[in-house]
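Response to reviewer comment R2.3. The reviewers asked that we include at least one raw input/output pair. We reproduce the pair for Pimeloyl-ACP methyl ester carboxylesterase here without editing.
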Amino acid sequence: MLYSKIEGEGKPFIIMHGFLGMSDNWKTLAGQYVEAGFQVHILDLRNHGRSFHSDEWSYEAMVQDVYEYCQANNLTRIDILGHSMGGKVAMLFATTHPEIVDKLIVADIGPRFYKQHHQDILAGLNAVDFSAKPSRNDVEEIVSQYVPDFGTRQFLLKNLYWKEPGQLAFRFNLEAFNNNLDAIGKPLADHLVFNNPTLFIRGGNSGYIQDADIDEIRKHFPNLKLETIPNAGHWLHAENPKMFFELTATFLKE
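Raw output as returned:
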C-alpha cells in the first residue's frame, strides 16, 4: 500500500508529486486545502518517498496503486491533483476510473510524449557511491558537478536520509528509474477521455505545456480550463504557491 499523509475532514482530495519528489513537497499547500474544507491525501508514489520499491515502474502500475489505495480507504468520489509525473498518473487514473473522479487538476504536464531529459540529474545521482559513507556535504558536492542549479539540487537532496547511523541513502529507487527511464515520457493513449471538469495549470516560463498542445489536451479533456501562472517555471506550485492555491481552490469549489 502506498504511503500517505491524511489530514482534514471533507471531500477526499488526492495530491501526487512529480518525478524524484515526495509527499513532503506538498505539505504546506496540503494544509491550505485542509483549511478550505478537504480531506487531503498526499501520496508517495511507488519507488518514491516512503512508499515501497518495485522493479516494475510504469504509469499503469502507479494508477493501479492509486486505485487500490482508494479502495482500501473507501474513497468512492474524489478530486485529484498531480504535478509533472504525478500529473500523468492523474490523467491516466481519471480516464480509466472516471466513476471515482469528480474533478481533475494537472500541473505543468500534458498528455503528449516527452523525450527523455533527466540524463544530467540521473548521472549526478548515480555518481554518488554510498558505500564510501559520504556526508550530506559530500553528496551535494558530487551532485553539484552534474546539477548546477541550487534549487533543483535542494529538491533532489530532500530524498537523502540516514538508513542507519553513519549511512546515508536516497529514499527513491534509483535502480528502477535507470532500468525504466523511457516510461516517464509515455503519452496518454489516444482513445482515453475524461469528461468531467478539468483544470490544467502551466508555468509561464515552462515549456512543458505549449500553445500547440492545447488541442490535444482538449481532445482528452473536453471540459477543460487552462490557466497560466506568469513568471513561473515547472515547479509553479513552489514558485508561486499563493496563485497556485487560489486557482485550484476556486476550481474545486465551483
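The chain has two domains: 4-114+186-253, 118-179. The radius of gyration is 18 Å. Further pairs are available on request from the corresponding author.
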